[in-house]
Design brief:
The protein is α+β, with helices and mostly antiparallel strands and 1972 residues long. It is built from 65 helices and 40 strands. Strands 12, 13, 14, 16, 17, 19 and 20 form a seven-stranded antiparallel beta sheet that branches. Strand 3 and strand 4 form a beta hairpin. The chain is extended and about 155 Å long.
């Protein structure tokens, strides 16, 4: 049975549990669980990370922990009872763990590893706390370390700042908001700006001395030197090195490491240096022989210097090498460091180039205790401490020092009868009063223990030696008296014995007879001469002698003897026990000389402060002793002396001695009667304040009042104890009188900063310190009344001195912080006076910082220690006094412009933050009663209205993101909780007072605006929080957004008919609220939209306003990142959602206006889909196709569905910017053209818009034209640029702006030059299918054709797409996917290359047009693409695969032509046609024949630089034919079996036969041409070809061509023999747009690129090999197989030498198997061996589609009597060498509706009339080429020309623009296929303005509305018209111009010229565009 648990409430999972049992709860190790019930070793409960899922788990898997329970029962909450730091650590580490892994994923390695170390440290510290064996101090230390690390990690990870008090997290509910603000600010400041350390320490470690000429031991001395004052500022650090330059005691770190302590910030200057002096221990001369002398001397060696400023930048200098300079002249040794500092190094040598002193230096900051904690490694091994010279900046009481510093300066000695100067060595001893030499009291430096004697270094042959060696003598105080120092002088001989001879001595006593110590300064000592054997052991023999020359009066006989030789030392005493001051000694010994008392008291002020504090207690005893002795005589002087001493302790240097004085007062002070005199003198001073002119002394007295009162109170207490409390009333009376005098002097008003106001300020600054003293003797209320009266007497005038105002506030602030104010009884007395002064200051906006600080303290105390009743009363007082002024103050300071300086800004933020915290504290402590009283206190509605507006405005300010720092989430949540509570109170007032007839729009609008921005705050978006943080917030505050949303809904419902005031203004704000992904909030808010639509419908009959506002706001909000997929579904959902409200759509469906409502919802939903995609795409960094495609989708939607012109134009420019960023210049130009088309050449003014200034429409259009031309130029789309150049040139010409016209013509000319001179790359085109639901909406389950980048092949494109869509799966086939793929929750990409089919063949087929021009028409304005997939149908014949080889040809038609405003466009429709094996064979042969003709023609016209391509092609065809290529076709299709089984293919078989014969004719003629041009070395190959050709003819059964010649004349250029063949219908144009399920291959002409045809054989391999070396792009034939199995592998690669206009190689095939990756691999295979893909040819490059035409003077077009004029006046197609079947011709004749793009006009040529073809009437005409009509015909550049034979007529095509014609006759059987009778009227002539076809087909046109934004308008017949701006109007008589680029906009004909109607134009935009 399951029993609810009593104690087992909380636990941690110690082993993972899978939860496989019924009702099992899956748990992971480390999870925390709350336990609800137990039963037989099982618990039931839930994991805290997911409290909604409950289940059972074994009790053994859980470790129980102690916990408390809140709200026992169903909703109980468990709180662990462990240390709060442990709890915080645990939850923080959990959060960090997740984020830590993310750091690894994001590749932030540095932070990842640092955080890992910190987490390990925190875990280690957590263990220490949990073990519980730490001492109290150690526990505090560990917690400090933990919190420091937690804060660091939170800051690094961008988590919230945690408010803490004594290392524990603070619950914001338990403290006032002002205190919370202070805690947050304290931690924030600590984080932002670490406090500057006042003291610094330098750590020095000597590693070694690197020098080549060592060999002697060394002494190294470090010290700090002030070069500005030329003196050392620290003691010395002394260490010894061995002969190798290494420390002598490496095992004792304190011997070679030292810490120079207590450097002040002022001493970290550039002129402070570390100086290092090195002394060697050894022979006198460095180069002496070893045996010369056994005695060792200290001798100078070298010096090094380093500026301390060098350490300030890097902090740590490991293994720094200091240069060591050697002293050449020993006399300068004492100042060698100064000379090095002054850069006088030239006089010194370096010890060696690679020599130096290796040291490690580190500058540490903070006090010494802090350094010990932070750098334990420095102290753990041992380090010597090197102090500053003298006392540190702050003298601490109890510090015991008695150090005498002696500097051995210099000496002056005589030669002593020698010819050379002496080598003097000084030896120093300390001798006590008993004559004993003191041991171990001479310290050379901190690294070495003290010694008993000192030996100076020796300077060679120097009678005036300068040593400047500093020594410290730490002599105890008790041995100081009577001790003296003796110096002995010896001459050091350099002879073999090396003896040292004593020749003199000096001495100096340490203390004078009167008890004063040796004064500081330099002393010149007398050198007393003596002999070597003089006994100096008995000091009494010489102590009577004079020791200093300063003491000699010059009269003594001794003086004359001893003045020649002198010795100088400098002494400096640093002692806390001994004094050098005689006045101090006189004062302390006042009883021995009573007559000196007045003098001593007067001199006290002149004594140095350090001397006074050393003897503070003795001095105070002396003063009160004198006062007791004679108070009448000395009272005033003692009082003044006491004031001087008290004020001395205010100095920062002696500040720490205040506790010493406090201790003295408490424990040692015994003046029981002193209070009378002190009160009397103090009152005397206060009474004279108003009269005295000079107030300096009075101010000194007032400054000392705190301690004076301490002495008064303590004295009175001692008196009361002694007398039993006598004279109590008298004492109280004295105090009251004293304070009465104070009140009188305070109430005096003085204008300006006079002495009186200064005295008032001084009194006020120290007065609060008196309260605690008065409380020792008086009742709390009594003291409070005294203080209230005193503070109340302050003048309230506003013109008083500002300093006094500040001090007054400071005094009030200290009063609030004092112990007196803490007591509720006294607080109720003091609060009114405090608030009165605050109100005055706030009203004047003065001293805001101080006011804010005082207010903060007021609220802190009212929260902390007050009974319920007293708090309510206090809040009453504060609300009445301060609420209004507080709101005004916040409004005032937040509306001020912020200064730019960081410090000012911080100051501003501090003030605002504190006032805000005060306001929030006040509002939080207000109860219902307070709010009711407040609202009732407004007498009029106007006052209430102003108050509400004011408080709503303040709340809006509080919600601003910049109000608090980013990581102050705790503070923001508290603030929001207070705001929402207050708003709920105030909304009642709003409903009661401002509805119906009292409705006030402004206040309601302010309310709604506040509510909306409240909900939208970032800190309330719980979805962005971690689960643990979200759980905490919900537990503490709930979801405040939902609360506020319900309040909005409630208030909205109350509005009634007043709702109309807020439509459409509130649509945007409410929409913003609904975009928040909180289901409950959305359910509450979305019905408001229904209400709005309903009210708007009632008012105006529609809701256009709602719709417009909704759509505009959606766009701006989505682009900001709001909204999600669920939101779209919510808006559109039919299913009722959570809560009481049905979905919006369901509500609308009940209304009478449901149709328009549902339409609006559908539009909004579709817009959201696009906007969501757009937002998601824009989050990616770099520009990619996804971004561009998404923008295009959105842009189209705004134009076509919403007609939102302004948004449309905005997105045009966004798209333009994306294209520029991606360097898609052509697309950028087309994009800008969309905007250009909206404008006209008019002078209407346009407003400023986007980046455009205010200007006329003409100017903007001109600007756009120039920008578009520039982009077309950069995109190498020069033909389009030329059209625009002409358009703008016309405008310049019409305005006679010849200057700009000239520039434009020059620009146009430059574009023509670029067409001819610059290389253009032809892009590849790829078909991409996006399948699956995971793709963005605009791509989902759609297919596109994409224009690749330059040089981009299939592999590169595929890789790019997979990079853009990293989660996509590449499909490995080209088959159409099935429905499962469409509906899959994944992304599938299907990619393969496709071939562009140009619509206009005119330019491509024209002879003599350079490839540079043709290359443009091959890949521009392309609507149609195709790809082929070969497959075997039926049984495959292993002997001859051609019998069953079919081809599936797929044609793709786009919604817009490429290139356009995007690099990819969607496929509008696809057509799939299967070609039979026979049709396939016909097309293969047609392609090969066309290729041969082109090469032969090029060879004849000398366009080829070498003959290799022709050789290869001939070789490939002939060799393949000989080896069975064509014969395979014969075997397959010419056998009786095939003919009988396919009777319908008779014509096609005949056609195939013709093509084979035609190929033989071409080969025959080609060999003739080849023979003419073949070089000598290739003659053998030519002969082989000729031989093989005869074999080929015999295999085909051809003996001669005479019959053929008569039947079909074929024209070859340059007078070659005319070869004829039987006529047959021409094949259909590649652009034939009839939709047929299965089509003859002849409908799809051979425009494939060169391939290895079915005739290829082994020789084709040679062709391929030679191709790579071809120099002309026209000679490159890359073989391209048809689609095979893989859609993602490129099947070809361009030849490396491809140049000129055709760099693009053959198109890739999507279905090529891996083993046939390149067509060249197939070239060597016989037809049987080759895969089926190898025999399907790829389209011929348009540049290679040259006609095999003959240009002759008499060549005229020949007419056929059976053909109408339009059927003849057509341009030849690439397949004009082949004839189509009559059947196809008939079907085409019925629907001859094809349009071709116009061809640029050519000049009228008069030399050859045959160059123009006239429209011919349908009447029969002669067959002679000379008998036809001769009218010339010049096509217009904007007329539609057929791109193929429109009716598949059986006439041979001719070029109407070049006059070249090749004709053949028709057979009766071929003509019989036509249904059109000969006499039927034909279509209009070309000049008539209609196309060469039948009328338009409206039904097909209307079935699809062309996108109105398209640059190239598309009809079903797919002409390629340009935009208006790219079309050229045609004059009736076109000027003779060179060939012009394509100008195909169908709407630009002028001067009455009619044109074919291409289809409906896009609907015109509203003309409001003129304003844009």
């Amino acid at each position: 049975m399951w029993i609810p648990t009593e104690h087992e409430k909380y636990g941690v999972v110690i082993a993972s549990f899978r939860g496989t049992v019924p009702y099992g709860l899956s748990l992971e190790i480390g999870d925390t669980v709350q336990i609800l019930e137990k039963c037989d070793g099982w618990y039931r409960g839930f994991a805290l990370k997911n409290p909604n899922i409950k289940g059972i788990f074994p009790s053994s898997y859980v470790h129980l922990k102690h916990a408390g329970v809140k709200n026992k029962g169903q909703f109980e909450m468990v709180i662990p009872t462990e240390d709060s730091v442990i709890t915080e650590m645990t939850s923080t580490l959990r959060d960090w763990g997740t984020m830590w892994k993310q750091l690894y994923v994001r590749n932030e390695g540095d932070l990842f590893h640092r955080l890992w170390h910190i987490m390990n440290e925190v875990l280690d510290l957590r263990r220490q706390v949990l073990v519980g064996h730490l001492t109290h101090d150690r526990m505090k230390d560990v917690k400090r370390h933990i919190t420091a690390r937690l804060d660091w990690g939170n800051e690094q990870l961008g988590l919230d700042l945690v408010p803490r008090k004594e290392y524990a997290m603070v619950d914001p509910e338990d403290i006032s908001i002002t205190e919370l603000y202070r805690l947050m600010e304290h931690r924030h400041r600590k984080k932002d700006a670490p406090a500057q350390a006042s003291s610094h320490h330098l750590f020095v470690e000597l590693k070694s001395l690197m020098c080549s000429n060592l060999g002697e031991e060394l002494e190294v001395v470090f010290s700090l030197f002030d070069s500005r004052e030329n003196r050392p500022i620290s003691e010395r650090f002394f260490l010894r090195l061995n002969r190798n330059g290494l420390p002598k005691a490496p095992d004792k770190p304190e011997r070679h490491c030292s810490l120079f302590v207590d450097l002040s910030s002022g001493e970290l200057r550039r002129d402070i240096y570390i100086t290092v002096h090195i002394i060697r221990i050894g022979r006198m001369g460095a180069g002496e022989k070893k045996n010369a002398c056994s005695v060792q001397y200290r001798r100078p060696f070298g010096c090094a210097v380093l500026s301390i400023a060098d350490l300030l930048t890097g902090e740590t200098k490991d293994d720094l090498i200091l240069k060591v300079y050697m002293c050449n002249t020993e006399s300068e040794w004492h100042q060698i460091h100064e000379n090095i500092i002054k850069k006088l190094n030239a006089r010194y040598n370096l010890t060696g180039s690679n020599a130096g002193l290796a040291v490690s230096l580190q500058l540490l900051h903070g006090d010494l205790e802090q350094i010990r904690r932070e750098y334990p490694s420095v102290f753990s091994h041992g380090v010597s401490i090197t102090r500053k010279l003298g006392f540190s900046n702050i003298i601490m009481p109890g510090e015991m020092r008695n150090d005498l510093y002696i500097t051995v300066e210099r000496g002056e000695f005589e030669k002593g009868g020698k010819s050379v100067a002496r080598n003097v060595e000084v030896t120093m001893f300390i001798v006590d009063s008993g004559g004993q030499t003191l041991k171990d009291f001479i310290s050379f430096g901190s690294g070495e223990p003290p010694a008993g004697e000192y030996h100076s270094f020796v300077l060679y042959h120097n009678n005036s030696p300068r040593w400047a060696e500093l020594l410290k003598l730490p002599i105890p105080v008790d041995t100081f008296r009577g001790a003296h120092i003796r110096f002995e002088f010896r001459h050091c001989s350099t002879k073999e014995k090396g003896e040292k001879k004593l020749f003199g001595f000096s001495f100096i006593p340490l203390m004078q007879e009167d008890g004063r110590t040796l004064p500081d300064g330099t002393h010149e000592l007398i050198v007393h001469k003596c002999e070597e054997n003089t006994n100096l052991q008995d000091p009494t023999r010489y102590l009577k002698l004079p020791f200093s020359k300063g003491l000699l009066l010059g009269t003594s006989s001794l003086a004359t003897k001893t003045t020649k030789e002198s010795f100088w030392i400098t002494s400096f005493l640093c002692s806390t026990k001994l004094t050098q001051n005689g006045d101090m000694l006189d004062l302390l010994k006042w009883r021995t000389h009573p007559d000196k008392i007045p003098g001593c008291l007067s001199k006290l002020k002149e004594i140095d402060g350090s001397e006074i504090v050393k003897f503070l207690q003795d001095t105070l005893d002396t003063l009160f002793g004198i006062l007791d002795e004679n108070s009448q005589k000395y009272g005033s002087k003692v009082f003044d002396s006491l004031v001087h001493i008290i004020n001395l302790l205010q100095d920062s240097k002696f500040h720490h001695f205040k506790p010493v004085m406090d201790t003295y007062i408490e424990s040692h002070f015994a003046g029981a009667l002193a209070y009378r005199d002190l009160i009397k003198v103090l009152k005397w001073y206060v009474d004279r304040i108003t009269e005295a002119e000079r107030q300096e002394h009075i101010q000194e007295v007032l400054k000392a009042q705190e301690y004076i009162f301490k002495y008064i109170v303590q004295s009175r207490r001692l008196f009361s104890l002694a007398t039993g409390g006598q004279h109590e009333e008298e004492f109280r009376c004295c105090i009251r009188e004293l304070l009465l005098s104070v009140r009188f002097f305070l109430s005096q008003e003085s204008k300006g900063a006079g002495p009186l106001s200064q005295s008032q300020a001084v009194f006020l600054s120290s007065f609060p310190a008196v309260y605690s003293e008065l409380l020792k003797l008086f009742d709390v209320r009594e003291v409070a009344n005294l203080v209230q009266d005193t503070l109340g007497s302050l003048p309230t005038l506003l013109h008083v001195d500002e300093t006094l105002q500040a001090v007054k506030l400071q005094c009030i602030g200290q009063t609030v912080e004092s112990q007196l104010y803490t007591n509720p009884d006294s607080r109720c007395i003091l609060l009114p006076v405090v608030l009165h002064h605050l109100h005055m200051h706030l009203r004047q906006q003065k001293d805001l910082v101080a006011c804010a600080h005082i207010l903060s303290n007021v609220f802190c105390l009212s929260k902390k220690n007050s009974s319920e009743k007293s708090v309510l009363e206090e809040i009453d007082v504060i609300v009445a006094s301060l609420l209004d002024i507080l709101l005004r103050t916040i409004l005032e300071i937040t509306s001020r412009p912020q200064a730019s300086g960081a410090a000012t800004r911080l100051h501003f933020q501090d003030v605002t933050g504190e006032f805000v915290a005060c306001l929030l504290s006040l509002l939080r402590q207000m109860t219902d009663r307070h709010y009711q009283q407040l609202l009732d206190s407004f007498s009029t509605k106007e006052e209430l209205r102003d108050f509400l507006l004011q408080i709503f405005t303040v709340f809006r300010i509080l919600i601003r993101p910049e109000m608090f720092p980013k990581d102050w989430t705790v503070m923001r949540l508290v603030a929001n909780n207070v705001i929402i509570t207050t708003v709920l109170y105030l909304s009642d007032a709003l409903r009661k007072n401002f509805l119906n007839e009292n409705f006030d729009y402004k206040i309601w609008d302010s309310y709604f605006f506040l509510a909306v921005i409240f909900i939208n705050q970032l800190c309330l978006q719980l979805e962005m929080f971690t689960p643990s943080k979200k759980k905490k917030v919900l537990e503490k505050y709930g979801d405040m957004r939902v609360t506020m949303g319900c309040e909005i809904f409630s208030m909205w419902q109350n509005l009634g008919e007043h709702k109309l005031h807020f439509i459409p203004a509130l649509i945007g704000p409410f929409l913003e609220v609904t975009l928040i992904p909180q289901p409950d909030l959305r359910n509450v808010m979305i019905p408001i939209f229904h209400d709005m639509m309903d009210w708007e419908q009632r008012r105006s009959g529609n809701f256009k306003q709602v719709e417009a506002k909704l759509i505009d706001k959606l766009d701006s909000l989505m682009s900001e990142g709001k909204g999600d997929e669920t939101y779209r579904e919510l808006f559109n959902s039919i299913i009722p959602l959570f809560g009481p409200y049905p979905s919006l759509l369901k509500k609308i469906e009940r209304e009478t206006w449901r149709e328009s409502g549902v339409s609006l919802i559908a539009t909004v939903t579709r817009l959201m889909e696009r906007l969501l995609d757009y937002r998601d795409c824009m989050r990616v960094g770099e520009v990619d196709g996804k971004k561009i495609g998404c923008t295009v989708s959105l842009l189209n939607f705004y134009k076509t569905e919403l007609n939102k012109e302004e948004m449309y134009i905005r997105y045009i420019h966004k798209l333009y910017d994306l294209h520029l960023k991606a360097q898609n210049f052509t697309e950028a130009a087309y994009t800008l053209l969309l905007y250009d088309e909206l404008l006209e050449w008019s002078d209407r003014p346009l407003r400023e818009f986007l980046s455009y200034p205010t200007q006329t429409e003409w100017q903007r259009k001109e600007h756009l034209h120039l920008a578009i031309i520039q982009n077309f130029d950069r995109g190498k789309c020069w033909e389009n640029g030329i059209v625009l150049c002409r358009k703008i040139a016309e405008q310049y010409e019409s305005y006679y702006d010849y200057r700009n016209l000239s520039k434009m013509r020059m620009m146009e000319a430059s574009l023509y030059d670029k067409i001819m001179d610059q290389q253009r790359l032809e892009p590849e085109f790829f078909r991409v299918g996006f399948y699956g639901k995971k793709f963005p909406f605009f791509l989902r389950n759609k297919e596109f054709v994409c224009r690749g980048h330059d040089y981009e092949r299939l592999e590169a494109f595929q890789q790019r797409m997979l990079t853009e869509f990293p989660h996509a799966i590449a499909m490995q086939h080209a088959n159409q996917p099935d429905e499962t793929i469409f509906q899959a929750e994944a992304q599938y990409l299907q990619i393969y290359a496709v071939t562009p089919i140009p619509e206009s063949q005119e330019v491509l087929q024209r002879d003599g047009v350079p490839d540079n021009i043709k290359s443009f028409y091959k890949v521009n304005h392309i609507w149609k693409f195709r790809y082929d997939r070969p497959f075997h149908k039926g049984p495959k014949d292993k002997e001859n695969e051609f019998k069953s080889l079919w081809v599936e040809r797929t044609s793709l038609f786009l919604v817009q032509s490429l290139p356009g405003i995007s690099r990819w466009f969607e496929v509008d429709k696809r057509e799939v046609v299967e070609m039979t094996p026979l049709e396939n064979a016909i097309e293969v042969l047609e392609n090969k024949n066309q290729q041969l003709k082109t090469l032969i023609s090029q060879c004849q016209t000398r366009q080829m630089q070498n003959i290799n391509p022709l050789t290869m092609c001939l070789n490939g065809v002939i060799d393949a034919a000989v080896n069975g290529g064509v014969s395979r076709y014969q075997e397959a299709f010419f056998v009786k079996e095939y003919i009988l089984s396919h009777p319908e293919d008779g014509e096609k078989i005949a056609r195939l036969r013709e093509l084979m014969l035609e190929q033989a004719q071409i080969l025959d003629f080609g060999l003739a041409v080849h023979e003419k041009f073949v070089p000598q070395d290739m003659r053998p190959l030519h002969k082989k070809l000729v031989d093989q050709f005869f074999m080929m003819k015999s295999s085909l059964g051809i003996q001669e061509f005479s019959a053929c010649l008569q039947a079909s004349p074929v024209h070859f250029p340059n007078g070659s023999p005319r070869v004829c063949r039987n006529s047959a219908p021409a094949s259909m144009s590649p652009d034939g747009s009839r939709v047929v399920p299965r089509r003859s291959p002849l409908s799809y002409p051979a425009i494939n690129r060169y391939s290895s045809s079915s005739l290829s054989s082994q020789a084709s391999a040679e062709v391929s090999n030679i191709t790579g070396q071809s120099e002309s792009s026209d000679e490159v034939f890359n073989m391209q197989p048809s689609p095979s199995t893989s859609s993602l592998s490129s099947t070809h690669s361009a030849s490396p030498n491809v140049t000129s206009s055709a760099p693009s190689s053959a198109r890739a095939s999507p279905l090529l198997s891996d083993k046939h990756k390149h067509s060249r691999e197939n070239a060597c295979l016989s037809p049987r061996e080759r895969p089926c893909s190898a025999i399907y040819p790829t389209p011929v490059e348009p540049s290679q589609r040259l006609l095999f035409n003959h240009i002759g003077d008499g060549a005229m077009p020949r007419s056929d009597p059976n053909l109408s004029a339009p059927e003849k006046a057509v341009n030849p197609t690439p397949s004009s060498w082949s004839l189509d079947s009559g059947k196809e011709a008939r079907s085409m004749a019925e629907s001859g509706r094809l349009l071709s793009p116009p061809v640029p006009p050519r000049p009228a040529l008069t030399a050859s009339p045959a160059r123009h073809m006239a429209p011919v009437s349908p009447s029969p005409a002669g067959r002679s080429p000379l008998k036809g009509p001769g009218q010339s015909f010049t096509p217009s550049p904007v007329e539609y020309h057929s791109s193929g034979l429109l009716s598949n007529s059986p006439v041979l095509s001719g070029s109407c623009s070049s006059g070249i014609s090749s004709l053949s006759r028709c057979s009766a059987s071929e003509i019989s296929g036509f249904e059109n009778p000969v006499n039927e009227p034909s279509a209009p002539a070309p000049g008539s303005g209609s196309g060469y076809g039948a009328p338009e087909e409206p039904a097909r046109r209307d079935s699809k509305t062309p996108p109105p934004y398209s640059v190239y308008e598309r009809t079903v017949r797919r002409p390629v018209p340009l935009p208006h701006s790219l079309s050229i109007p045609v004059t009736p008589e076109p000027p003779a111009l060179p060939p012009k680029p394509l100008a195909a906009r169908p709407g630009a004909l002028e001067n009455g010229t009619r044109r074919t109607e291409p289809g409906p134009r896009p609907r015109p935009l509203p003309r409001k565009v003129s304003q844009l």
